[in-house]
Amino acid sequence: MRSWVCISTPNGTTSWGTIMTATYTFDVFSSLDGFGAAGGDWTGYWGKQGPELLDHRLDLYREEQRMVFGANTFRAFTQMLAPDSGIDEVRDPWVTRMTTMPATVVSTTLREPLDWPDATVVSGDAVDVVARLKKESDVPLRSHGSLAMNRALMGAGLVDLVQVTLFPVITGRTGLGPIFAGAADFDLELVSQRTLDRHIQELVYRPTLHP
């Protein structure tokens, strides 16, 4: 990602130049009505997953990236990944691959060592942490879930891509985690789209704060 900056030279003059920053992708699963999860008898992926989705997810996570999590999502992941959780979806290959990737966890309550092979806890405001990561990271950044954190990052202009995997369900009665509740307003530029297993839509957008 290329950003314009004002550069001061040794002789006191200034000029405009560019720096490369790591691309940050907010990766989220959603029902048609905008919920990130559901209660009741819904299972993982709302029971709509198929081989194309799972293969595509593994391809996405094969790329070298750094994961970024908020504390609540990280706790939820580690609980689901526990051997006695009984949740089959956490054994999917893309999830296994994700757990081997380096991760930054933004938290003021968690302490190292974490139950994750290569995770670092960074305290402080998520906006400051991610702004610094975007400047320093040699690989793209990706966050799965972490809704409140990513809403704040979108509002600060730090999210380059919003990748929504849209499942063919409406969960008006049992929906949990309204993804964009309380978020700012955004215009969205469609970057790519694909259909998986004939009924799942992946939509990738570039967000811009609406004036």
Automatic annotation (TrEMBL):
<dbReference type="InterPro" id="IPR002734">
    <property type="entry name" value="RibDG_C"/>
</dbReference>
<feature type="domain" description="Bacterial bifunctional deaminase-reductase C-terminal">
    <location>
        <begin position="25"/>
        <end position="198"/>
    </location>
</feature>
<dbReference type="GO" id="GO:0008703">
    <property type="term" value="F:5-amino-6-(5-phosphoribosylamino)uracil reductase activity"/>
</dbReference>
<dbReference type="Pfam" id="PF01872">
    <property type="entry name" value="RibD_C"/>
</dbReference>
<dbReference type="GO" id="GO:0009231">
    <property type="term" value="P:riboflavin biosynthetic process"/>
</dbReference>
<protein>
    <submittedName>
        <fullName>Bifunctional deaminase-reductase domain protein</fullName>
    </submittedName>
</protein>
<dbReference type="InterPro" id="IPR024072">
    <property type="entry name" value="DHFR-like_dom_sf"/>
</dbReference>
